[in-house]
Amino acid sequence: MKRVTIYEVAREANVSLATVSRVINGAEIVRQETRERVEQAIEKLGYKPNAIAQGLALQKTTTIALVIPEASFTYTGQVINGLLDAARILKYNIMLHTITEGITDVNDIVESIIKSRVDGVVFYNDKLQEDQISTLKQYQMPMVVIGNRISGDNVCSVFVDIEKAVCELCDKYLSEGKSDIAIVQDRKNLFASQQMVDGAKKAFARKNQDFTKFIEIPQTYRTSYAYLKEYFKTNRHQLVIANRDSQALACMNAAMELGISIPDQMEVVCVINTKYNAMVRPQLSSFALPSYDLGAVAMRLITKMLNNEPIEEREIELSYLFTPRQTTK
């Protein structure tokens, strides 16, 4: 079916394109008689205004840019689903940008966002730096950051306190006399890695101890699994904490292949819970994080900012729940 254009509406109503645009966008300067004639032409022809063209007339595109990392799309997918569902309800479009480790320059993404004239941006990305935020601020670009506690003029955030979650987990093990705890570096999410380490350090400090067992994955190894197969030949821990399911599986498989019994000789915890954590054997203990809600709340926050609605909290913390399974005792 041929799409009806604004030109055909103008011809049917015998008015200019500018007049049709004013009627579509609710301008009050159009005479009532002319407005009714345009509305009748729109109804007769079945014209559907293009959301982007309509937005340009209002200096709004009703489009939000979403920036996400490529890592762990299983988890990120739930964040996106929450955001998309909220966007549909609130009648916004989403323009997706992805960050690929070692390939994508975040500054290029920021430049693309500015050129695309979106109304606002949601970042789910640990590599967002202060200078990049400042650049977007110069353009009065409303922003919501997922996963990092940050706020300010035109900036809000929604997050889960990973540092607190890991701190509580380490507290539990330290109180049981288990201090041989290690954290695996997530090269694709360095901010999450730092949160995990900070949480462990805080728990150890309460016991007047230092946390030192951070398993850094050398750049010479393409995967965590390849390095951990070597690492566990000479290193064993009571508890290993990984950020993503793939890394937790790498820990578990590498250890078991070397004869280390899970969880009898070594326990494994994955911070991010996905459907695969319950599907593998042994099932992975992890934290249930409200990933869908992170996206939905972020979308609602950005629309509140765009519509100048009151915002009670600019930093919204969502809760988590530790879910013990078969990789912990």
Structural commentary:
46% of the residues lie in helices and 17% in strands. The protein is α/β, with parallel strands linked by helices and 329 residues long. The protein has three domains: 52 residues, 434 Repressor (Amino-terminal Domain) (Orthogonal Bundle); 127 residues, Rossmann fold, CATH 3.40.50.2300; 128 residues, Rossmann fold, CATH 3.40.50.2300. A six-stranded parallel β-sheet has the order 2-1-3-4-5-11, with helices on both faces. A six-stranded mixed β-sheet has the order 7-6-8-9-10-12, sandwiched between helices. Strand 1, helix 5 and strand 2 form a beta-alpha-beta unit. Helix 5 runs parallel beside helix 13, helix 8 runs parallel beside helix 9 and helix 10 crosses helix 11. The radius of gyration is 25 Å and the shape is elongated.
Biggest beta sheet attributes = 6 strands, parallel
Number of strands: 12
Q: What's the gyration radius in Å?
A: 25 Å
> Numbering strands along the chain, what is their spatial order in the largest sheet?
2-1-3-4-5-11
Number of helices: 13
Kindly report the name of the CATH homologous superfamily of the largest domain: Response regulator
Poorly predicted regions are none
- Here the CATH topology of the largest domain equals Rossmann fold
CATH class of the largest domain, named: Alpha Beta
**Strand residue percentage:** 15-25%
CATH architecture label of the largest domain: 3-Layer(aba) Sandwich
